[in-house]
Design goal:
With 84 residues, the protein is mostly helical. The chain has 3 helices and 2 strands, in the order H-H-H-E-E.
Length: 84
């Protein structure tokens, strides 16, 4: 689910997962996809994240050109991205 409805928690949306993924990448630099997933599950949310929603959040950031992938396969915040 991308948009909120009255029966859903904000933490169960693509927007939320994209936002916390982007914030984590900004603070911690380059990180692999699975390492990011594990870090967010254990440190940020303290519960298991649905991997499909997580991937949709990462895809959303790619579509917005907020993140890229380096030669090693790690995700990073795009250099041309303003942080506003």
């Amino acid at each position: 689910m991308i948009l909120l409805d009255k029966n859903n928690k904000p933490q169960n949306t693509v927007y939320y997962l994209a936002a916390i993924s982007y914030g984590y990448l900004r603070q911690n630099g380059n990180i692999g996809l699975t390492a990011l997933y594990k870090a967010l599950s254990s440190k940020k949310i303290n519960s298991k994240i649905d991997f499909n929603f997580f991937i949709l959040g990462i895809d959303f950031l790619f579509m917005l050109d907020k993140i890229n992938i380096d030669k090693r396969g790690d995700l990073y915040v795009s250099k041309g991205t303003s942080h506003n």
